Amino acid sequence: MKKKLILLNGTSSSGKSSIAKKILEFEDEPYYHIGIDMVASMIDGSQIAANINNIADFTFLFSKHILDNGFNVVLDFVFEDNYADWLNRCINIFSSYDVRFIKVSCSLDELKKREIARKDRVIGLSEYQTSHMNVVSHYDYMVDTTNNSPDECARDILQYLNSSSEGTALKSMQNEMLVIKELSLSDKTLVLELISKSDLRTEGILAVNTRYWGAFMNNALIGVIGCEYETKYGLLRSAMVDESYRNNGLAKKLFSKVIEAGKKMNLDTIYLFSTEAGDYWKRLGFCLSSVEEVVNRLPNTPQVKLFDELGWLPTEVAYKLCP
After folding, report:
1. Of 128, 153, 176, which closes a domain?
2. Which residues pair with 77 in a beta bridge?
3. Where residue 84 falls among pLDDT bands split at 50, 70, 90?
Protein backbone atom coordinates (compact mmCIF):
# COMPACT_ATOMS: atom_id res chain seq x y z
CA MET A 1 0.00 0.00 0.00
CA LYS A 2 1.26 3.47 -0.89
CA LYS A 3 2.20 5.65 2.04
CA LYS A 4 0.41 8.98 2.25
CA LEU A 5 1.78 12.49 2.08
CA ILE A 6 -0.63 14.93 3.73
CA LEU A 7 0.44 18.34 2.45
CA LEU A 8 -0.93 21.21 4.54
CA ASN A 9 -0.74 24.50 2.67
CA GLY A 10 -1.60 27.72 4.45
CA THR A 11 -0.29 31.07 5.56
CA SER A 12 1.88 31.67 8.56
CA SER A 13 -0.18 31.41 11.79
CA SER A 14 -2.97 29.49 10.05
CA GLY A 15 -2.43 26.48 12.32
CA LYS A 16 -0.69 24.00 10.01
CA SER A 17 1.85 22.79 12.55
CA SER A 18 -0.76 22.43 15.29
CA ILE A 19 -2.96 20.36 12.99
CA ALA A 20 0.03 18.23 11.94
CA LYS A 21 0.86 17.43 15.56
CA LYS A 22 -2.73 16.38 16.22
CA ILE A 23 -2.77 14.12 13.17
CA LEU A 24 0.30 12.36 14.57
CA GLU A 25 -1.44 12.07 17.93
CA PHE A 26 -4.76 10.75 16.62
CA GLU A 27 -3.59 8.44 13.85
CA ASP A 28 -2.61 4.90 14.81
CA GLU A 29 -0.40 4.48 11.76
CA PRO A 30 2.97 6.29 12.15
CA TYR A 31 3.34 9.70 10.52
CA TYR A 32 6.39 11.96 10.40
CA HIS A 33 5.86 15.71 10.62
CA ILE A 34 8.10 17.76 8.32
CA GLY A 35 7.94 21.51 7.76
CA ILE A 36 9.94 24.01 5.77
CA ASP A 37 10.46 26.02 8.97
CA MET A 38 12.06 22.98 10.59
CA VAL A 39 14.51 22.61 7.72
CA ALA A 40 15.26 26.34 7.67
CA SER A 41 16.11 26.21 11.37
CA MET A 42 18.97 23.84 10.59
CA ILE A 43 21.12 26.65 9.17
CA ASP A 44 22.07 30.06 10.48
CA GLY A 45 19.22 32.57 10.15
CA SER A 46 21.39 34.98 8.16
CA GLN A 47 21.78 32.36 5.43
CA ILE A 48 18.13 31.42 4.97
CA ALA A 49 17.24 33.99 2.31
CA ALA A 50 20.18 33.06 0.09
CA ASN A 51 19.42 29.35 0.40
CA ILE A 52 15.62 29.39 0.43
CA ASN A 53 15.27 27.35 -2.80
CA ASN A 54 17.66 24.70 -1.49
CA ILE A 55 15.71 24.61 1.78
CA ALA A 56 12.44 24.00 -0.07
CA ASP A 57 14.04 21.32 -2.23
CA PHE A 58 15.56 19.55 0.76
CA THR A 59 12.19 19.62 2.53
CA PHE A 60 10.60 17.76 -0.39
CA LEU A 61 13.47 15.29 -0.78
CA PHE A 62 13.58 14.55 2.94
CA SER A 63 9.83 13.85 2.87
CA LYS A 64 10.31 11.59 -0.15
CA HIS A 65 13.04 9.67 1.68
CA ILE A 66 10.69 9.00 4.58
CA LEU A 67 7.92 7.83 2.23
CA ASP A 68 10.35 5.57 0.39
CA ASN A 69 11.24 3.95 3.70
CA GLY A 70 7.65 3.00 4.42
CA PHE A 71 6.28 5.83 6.56
CA ASN A 72 3.55 8.44 6.09
CA VAL A 73 4.37 12.15 6.15
CA VAL A 74 2.54 15.29 7.17
CA LEU A 75 4.24 18.19 5.41
CA ASP A 76 3.32 21.73 6.36
CA PHE A 77 4.33 24.25 3.74
CA VAL A 78 3.63 27.69 2.28
CA PHE A 79 3.29 27.81 -1.50
CA GLU A 80 3.55 31.50 -2.37
CA ASP A 81 2.96 32.84 -5.87
CA ASN A 82 6.49 34.29 -5.86
CA TYR A 83 7.89 30.77 -5.61
CA ALA A 84 5.81 28.94 -8.21
CA ASP A 85 8.82 26.77 -9.04
CA TRP A 86 8.45 25.17 -5.61
CA LEU A 87 5.06 23.79 -6.58
CA ASN A 88 6.43 22.52 -9.87
CA ARG A 89 9.26 20.81 -8.04
CA CYS A 90 6.86 19.33 -5.50
CA ILE A 91 4.64 17.92 -8.25
CA ASN A 92 7.65 16.47 -10.07
CA ILE A 93 9.05 14.75 -6.97
CA PHE A 94 5.76 13.33 -5.71
CA SER A 95 4.07 12.57 -9.04
CA SER A 96 3.90 8.83 -8.31
CA TYR A 97 2.92 9.11 -4.63
CA ASP A 98 -0.42 9.34 -2.83
CA VAL A 99 -0.46 13.07 -2.05
CA ARG A 100 -3.35 14.92 -0.44
CA PHE A 101 -3.28 18.68 -0.87
CA ILE A 102 -5.09 20.18 2.12
CA LYS A 103 -5.83 23.90 2.22
CA VAL A 104 -5.63 25.39 5.71
CA SER A 105 -7.59 28.64 5.80
CA CYS A 106 -8.12 31.28 8.46
CA SER A 107 -9.71 34.73 8.49
CA LEU A 108 -7.32 37.65 8.21
CA ASP A 109 -8.57 39.18 11.49
CA GLU A 110 -7.79 35.97 13.35
CA LEU A 111 -4.38 35.68 11.68
CA LYS A 112 -3.47 39.17 12.84
CA LYS A 113 -4.50 38.35 16.40
CA ARG A 114 -2.36 35.19 16.37
CA GLU A 115 0.67 37.04 15.06
CA ILE A 116 0.50 39.51 17.92
CA ALA A 117 -0.17 36.85 20.55
CA ARG A 118 2.60 34.47 19.48
CA LYS A 119 5.40 37.04 19.72
CA ASP A 120 7.70 35.04 17.41
CA ARG A 121 5.88 35.92 14.18
CA VAL A 122 6.67 38.65 11.66
CA ILE A 123 3.80 41.12 11.91
CA GLY A 124 2.09 41.48 8.54
CA LEU A 125 3.49 38.28 7.04
CA SER A 126 0.19 36.38 7.12
CA GLU A 127 -1.64 39.33 5.54
CA TYR A 128 0.90 39.42 2.72
CA GLN A 129 0.69 35.66 2.19
CA THR A 130 -3.11 35.70 2.21
CA SER A 131 -3.10 37.66 -1.06
CA HIS A 132 -0.11 35.82 -2.56
CA MET A 133 -1.09 32.17 -2.27
CA ASN A 134 -3.00 31.40 -5.46
CA VAL A 135 -0.42 29.19 -7.17
CA VAL A 136 -2.03 25.96 -5.92
CA SER A 137 -5.06 25.59 -8.21
CA HIS A 138 -6.49 22.32 -6.85
CA TYR A 139 -7.03 20.89 -3.39
CA ASP A 140 -8.25 17.52 -2.21
CA TYR A 141 -9.74 18.94 1.00
CA MET A 142 -10.00 22.19 2.96
CA VAL A 143 -10.23 23.10 6.64
CA ASP A 144 -10.76 26.48 8.29
CA THR A 145 -9.09 27.20 11.62
CA THR A 146 -10.86 30.51 12.27
CA ASN A 147 -13.37 28.87 14.59
CA ASN A 148 -12.24 25.23 14.51
CA SER A 149 -9.57 23.87 16.82
CA PRO A 150 -6.53 21.88 15.65
CA ASP A 151 -8.20 18.79 17.15
CA GLU A 152 -11.35 19.31 15.07
CA CYS A 153 -9.42 20.03 11.87
CA ALA A 154 -7.13 17.02 12.35
CA ARG A 155 -10.07 14.68 12.94
CA ASP A 156 -11.85 16.18 9.93
CA ILE A 157 -8.81 15.52 7.71
CA LEU A 158 -8.42 11.96 8.98
CA GLN A 159 -12.11 11.27 8.37
CA TYR A 160 -11.65 12.52 4.80
CA LEU A 161 -8.60 10.27 4.34
CA ASN A 162 -10.53 7.23 5.54
CA SER A 163 -13.36 7.93 3.11
CA SER A 164 -11.28 8.52 -0.03
CA SER A 165 -9.08 6.15 -1.99
CA GLU A 166 -6.59 8.58 -3.53
CA GLY A 167 -5.88 12.27 -3.93
CA THR A 168 -6.56 13.93 -7.27
CA ALA A 169 -5.28 17.50 -6.84
CA LEU A 170 -1.66 16.77 -7.75
CA LYS A 171 -2.57 14.91 -10.93
CA SER A 172 -5.00 17.68 -11.92
CA MET A 173 -2.28 20.30 -11.57
CA GLN A 174 0.21 18.09 -13.37
CA ASN A 175 -2.18 17.68 -16.32
CA GLU A 176 -2.61 21.45 -16.50
CA MET A 177 1.16 21.87 -16.79
CA LEU A 178 1.62 19.06 -19.34
CA VAL A 179 1.84 19.85 -23.07
CA ILE A 180 2.21 17.12 -25.71
CA LYS A 181 3.07 18.22 -29.23
CA GLU A 182 4.71 16.98 -32.41
CA LEU A 183 8.42 17.77 -32.60
CA SER A 184 10.53 19.22 -35.39
CA LEU A 185 14.23 19.27 -36.25
CA SER A 186 14.64 22.29 -34.01
CA ASP A 187 13.84 20.01 -31.06
CA LYS A 188 16.49 17.43 -31.95
CA THR A 189 18.98 18.55 -29.29
CA LEU A 190 16.31 18.24 -26.57
CA VAL A 191 15.37 14.74 -27.78
CA LEU A 192 19.00 13.61 -27.85
CA GLU A 193 19.58 14.94 -24.34
CA LEU A 194 16.59 13.04 -22.99
CA ILE A 195 17.29 9.78 -24.81
CA SER A 196 20.96 9.89 -23.77
CA LYS A 197 19.75 9.18 -20.20
CA SER A 198 18.70 5.70 -21.36
CA ASP A 199 20.23 2.83 -23.32
CA LEU A 200 18.19 3.69 -26.43
CA ARG A 201 20.01 4.35 -29.69
CA THR A 202 20.05 7.90 -31.05
CA GLU A 203 20.96 7.23 -34.68
CA GLY A 204 18.26 8.34 -37.11
CA ILE A 205 16.44 10.61 -34.65
CA LEU A 206 14.08 12.91 -36.59
CA ALA A 207 15.33 11.52 -39.92
CA VAL A 208 13.32 11.75 -43.13
CA ASN A 209 10.04 9.79 -42.98
CA THR A 210 9.96 9.84 -39.19
CA ARG A 211 7.70 11.70 -36.77
CA TYR A 212 8.25 12.41 -33.09
CA TRP A 213 6.06 13.67 -30.27
CA GLY A 214 7.28 15.17 -27.02
CA ALA A 215 5.75 15.78 -23.60
CA PHE A 216 6.74 19.06 -21.97
CA MET A 217 6.38 20.09 -18.35
CA ASN A 218 7.14 23.76 -17.73
CA ASN A 219 8.92 23.90 -21.12
CA ALA A 220 11.20 20.96 -20.23
CA LEU A 221 11.04 17.82 -22.39
CA ILE A 222 10.12 14.92 -20.09
CA GLY A 223 8.93 12.28 -22.53
CA VAL A 224 9.29 11.36 -26.19
CA ILE A 225 8.13 8.79 -28.71
CA GLY A 226 8.89 8.37 -32.40
CA CYS A 227 7.71 6.39 -35.39
CA GLU A 228 9.42 5.55 -38.68
CA TYR A 229 7.28 5.13 -41.78
CA GLU A 230 7.51 3.19 -45.02
CA THR A 231 4.62 2.60 -47.42
CA LYS A 232 1.63 1.77 -45.20
CA TYR A 233 3.50 0.68 -42.09
CA GLY A 234 5.01 2.31 -39.03
CA LEU A 235 7.87 1.25 -36.74
CA LEU A 236 7.73 2.62 -33.23
CA ARG A 237 10.96 3.80 -31.59
CA SER A 238 12.56 6.00 -28.91
CA ALA A 239 9.69 5.64 -26.42
CA MET A 240 10.98 7.12 -23.20
CA VAL A 241 9.75 9.06 -20.17
CA ASP A 242 12.07 10.80 -17.73
CA GLU A 243 12.43 8.73 -14.57
CA SER A 244 10.82 11.41 -12.38
CA TYR A 245 7.57 11.25 -14.38
CA ARG A 246 7.07 7.52 -14.84
CA ASN A 247 4.14 5.39 -13.65
CA ASN A 248 1.61 8.15 -14.35
CA GLY A 249 0.31 7.14 -17.76
CA LEU A 250 2.48 9.60 -19.69
CA ALA A 251 3.92 6.94 -22.02
CA LYS A 252 0.39 5.87 -22.90
CA LYS A 253 -0.55 9.48 -23.70
CA LEU A 254 2.45 9.78 -26.00
CA PHE A 255 1.62 6.47 -27.67
CA SER A 256 -1.93 7.68 -28.34
CA LYS A 257 -0.45 10.44 -30.52
CA VAL A 258 1.24 7.80 -32.67
CA ILE A 259 -2.05 5.92 -32.99
CA GLU A 260 -3.94 9.09 -33.94
CA ALA A 261 -1.36 9.90 -36.61
CA GLY A 262 -1.43 6.33 -37.91
CA LYS A 263 -5.18 6.45 -38.40
CA LYS A 264 -4.94 9.72 -40.33
CA MET A 265 -2.15 8.22 -42.48
CA ASN A 266 -4.27 5.08 -43.11
CA LEU A 267 -1.50 2.78 -41.90
CA ASP A 268 -2.15 -0.94 -42.04
CA THR A 269 -0.33 -1.52 -38.76
CA ILE A 270 2.49 -0.37 -36.49
CA TYR A 271 5.44 -2.53 -35.46
CA LEU A 272 8.09 -2.29 -32.77
CA PHE A 273 11.19 -4.07 -31.52
CA SER A 274 11.48 -4.82 -27.80
CA THR A 275 13.53 -7.43 -25.96
CA GLU A 276 12.59 -6.34 -22.44
CA ALA A 277 9.24 -4.47 -22.41
CA GLY A 278 7.05 -6.88 -24.32
CA ASP A 279 4.53 -7.30 -21.51
CA TYR A 280 4.01 -3.53 -21.37
CA TRP A 281 3.39 -3.26 -25.10
CA LYS A 282 1.01 -6.21 -25.01
CA ARG A 283 -1.10 -4.25 -22.53
CA LEU A 284 -1.28 -1.46 -25.09
CA GLY A 285 -2.60 -3.78 -27.77
CA PHE A 286 0.49 -5.30 -29.39
CA CYS A 287 1.01 -8.99 -30.15
CA LEU A 288 4.04 -10.99 -31.24
CA SER A 289 5.13 -10.70 -34.84
CA SER A 290 8.23 -11.88 -36.70
CA VAL A 291 11.40 -9.89 -37.27
CA GLU A 292 11.31 -11.07 -40.91
CA GLU A 293 7.89 -9.46 -41.40
CA VAL A 294 9.14 -6.14 -40.04
CA VAL A 295 12.27 -6.24 -42.24
CA ASN A 296 10.26 -7.11 -45.34
CA ARG A 297 7.76 -4.30 -44.81
CA LEU A 298 10.07 -1.58 -43.49
CA PRO A 299 13.49 -2.38 -45.03
CA ASN A 300 14.58 1.23 -45.50
CA THR A 301 13.73 2.62 -42.08
CA PRO A 302 16.65 3.90 -39.97
CA GLN A 303 15.96 1.40 -37.18
CA VAL A 304 15.95 -1.69 -39.43
CA LYS A 305 19.11 -0.55 -41.21
CA LEU A 306 20.89 0.15 -37.94
CA PHE A 307 19.92 -3.14 -36.32
CA ASP A 308 21.06 -4.97 -39.45
CA GLU A 309 24.45 -3.20 -39.36
CA LEU A 310 24.85 -3.99 -35.66
CA GLY A 311 23.89 -7.62 -36.17
CA TRP A 312 20.98 -7.34 -33.73
CA LEU A 313 18.12 -8.54 -35.94
CA PRO A 314 18.59 -12.28 -35.25
CA THR A 315 18.10 -11.71 -31.51
CA GLU A 316 15.40 -9.02 -31.66
CA VAL A 317 11.76 -9.60 -30.66
CA ALA A 318 9.12 -7.99 -32.87
CA TYR A 319 5.55 -6.92 -32.12
CA LYS A 320 2.73 -5.40 -34.09
CA LEU A 321 -0.62 -3.87 -33.22
CA CYS A 322 -3.14 -6.66 -32.95
CA PRO A 323 -5.91 -6.56 -35.58
Report:
1. 176
2. 9
3. confident
For residues 137 and 274, membership in a common domain is answered with no
The residue among 136, 161, 176 that closes a domain is 176
- Whether residue 42 is found in the same domain as residue 160: yes
- Shared domain for 16 and 147, answered yes or no, is yes
Return the closest-CA partner of residue 185 out of 208, 212, 206. 206
HSE toward the beta carbon, residue 282, CA cutoff 13 A = 9
Could you tell me the pLDDT band of residue 227, with boundaries at 50, 70 and 90?
A: very high
In this structure, the answer to whether residues 136 and 230 fall within a common structural domain is no
Question: What digits encode the pLDDT tens for the residues 107-159?
Answer: 999 999 998 888 777 788 889 898 889 899 999 999 999 999 999 999 999 99
Name the residue among 209, 247, 249 with its Cα closest to residue 230: 209
* Predicted pLDDT at 121: 74
- Predicted TM-score (pTM) of the model is 0.69
For range 254-278, the mean pLDDT: 96
Domain that holds residue 198: 183-321
Task: Report the alpha-carbon distance of residue 115 to residue 130 in Å, rounded.
Answer: 13
Confidence of residue 72 (pLDDT cuts 50, 70, 90): very high
| Residues in Cβ contact with 158 at an 8 Å cutoff, skipping those fewer than 6 apart | 23, 26, 27
